[in-house]
Amino acid sequence: MSAPKTSRRTFLNTTAKASAGMVLMPHFNINSAKPKLSDDIIGHGDYTYRVHKAWGDLDPNTTPVKNCHEMVMDSQGRLVMVGDHTQNNILIYDKSGKLLDSWGIRYKGGHGLSLWNDGEEDFLFICDTDGAMIKTTLDGRELLLIGHPSEYGAYEKDDTFKPTESAIGPNGDIYIADGYGSQYVLQFTKNGEFKRKIGNGRGTENEQFQTAHGVCIDNRDKTNPTLLITSRASNSFKRFTLDGRYLEEISLPGAFVCRPVIHGQQLYAGVCWSSETDFVEGDMTTHPTRTSPKSGFVTILNEQNKVVSNPGGTAPTYKKGKLERMLQKEPIFKHCHDVCVDEDENLYVCQWNANRTYPVKLERV
Q1: Is the pLDDT confidence value at 25 over 80?
Q2: How many domains does the chain have?
Q3: Spatial distance between the Cα atoms of 130 and 143, rounded to a whole number of angstroms
Q4: DSSP conformational letter for 19
Q5: Could you give the 3-state DSSP secondary structure of residue 149?
């Protein structure tokens, strides 16, 4: 259950780190100048943003990425990103886009990243779709590893386990979304002891998921925190109690949303694809392509869970209280996979399958 005492990470050498601190376009020569900041303004209503596409660009020869999957902000205001390049699974930026640190381990499926502070220290929870959830310190020392759920009596040995996201409850309980596997959310104690499975596997019933890609603690009601779980292929979030009882579904037509991110009273999410056709059961469960001709934007919901802005997408429209289908409008993004929000409400967008690009900053206007 626990990881070995010795760390399995391998740091980049000092020279590589120094070189990686240069901020460069990934497809430019090392001597090329950084391009001018964009004048593009995107979004709707009170939530509009200036696009800084080159904000997080580094030298790919020293600090390469494959997919920039997710990002969180630590208690020091640093931006921590996870990806699936084992030379540097973790990139740590300051808010200007300067690289502060990077480390790589063995996480070929580095996908989900959550941060939890126990009152004294920040910890990272990394989901590797190769079959593990790992708790680490900010410098990569492994503290806890949760492997295949058959080890805890939750699955059969032949059941698929490809975790995509985790969330930490108010009492330290760990919730793991098996989004590319058997479509459950698994609840463990903070020490890694199994408690329960949440949901009823793959399907379209209330308690079932079509790609349980993300999970978060919705603490906007301080007296009654709940779980929000992504059902990406059915274009929705589903709300459960912390002990796994289904409550409601938040429908987002056309939007293949990734994990929900709570900041203040708003809910943010990256939209990996947008679809002009309705979901069909059993189709588009992981990486839909046939029915998603336009892809990628950010969606923002208010405290009533109404969409108020879609940066990069069509304006949200409600008719008789029902949300109309949402699609990409400006081709600024490709497969938005996550959104991180800083204290000034600027957004940092990570993208999947987007030509090995680094995070993009959206400056709040």
Answers
A1: no
A2: 1
A3: 18
A4: H
A5: helix
**What percent of the chain is modeled with pLDDT above 70?**
85
Mean pLDDT of 331-360: 96
CATH number at residue 53: 2.120.10.30
Encode pLDDT of 31-87 as tens digits: 334 444 557 899 999 999 999 999 999 999 999 999 999 999 999 999 999 999 999
- Nearest residue to 298 via CA among 277, 324, 267, 342: 267
Residue bearing tokens 């009492």: 171
Rounded CA gap, 20 and 12, in Å? 10
Q: What are phi and psi of 261, to 5 degrees?
A: -125, 120
- 267-282 b/e with 16+ CB inside 10 Å = b? bbbbbbbbbeeebeee
Q: CA 71 → CA 68, 154, 208, 359, distances in Å? A: 8, 29, 27, 9
d(CA 72, CA 114) in angstroms, rounded, equals 7
Using alpha carbons, list the distances in angstroms from residue 235 to 165, 285, 324. 17, 11, 12
- From the list 78, 77, 100, the residue with the least C-alpha distance to 88 is 100
Indicate the residue type of 195: K
C-alpha 210/C-alpha 208 separation (Å) is 7
Contact 182, 176 (CB under 8 A): no
Answer yes or no: is 5 within a domain: no
CA-CA-CA-CA torsion for 90, 95, 99, 100, nearest 10 degrees?
Answer: -80
pTM for the structure as a whole? 0.87
Beta strands per DSSP E along 297-335: 297-301, 307-309, 318-319, 322-323
The sign of the dihedral angle between the CA atoms of 319, 221, 133, 137 is: positive
Q: Which domain holds residue 16?
A: 10-364
Assigned domain for 4 exists: no
Asked whether residue 2 is assigned to any structural domain, the reply reads no
* Phi–psi pair at 301, nearest 5 degrees: -115, 145
What phi and psi values does residue 62 have, to the nearest 5 degrees?
-110, -30
Residue 18 pLDDT class (50, 70, 90 cuts): very low
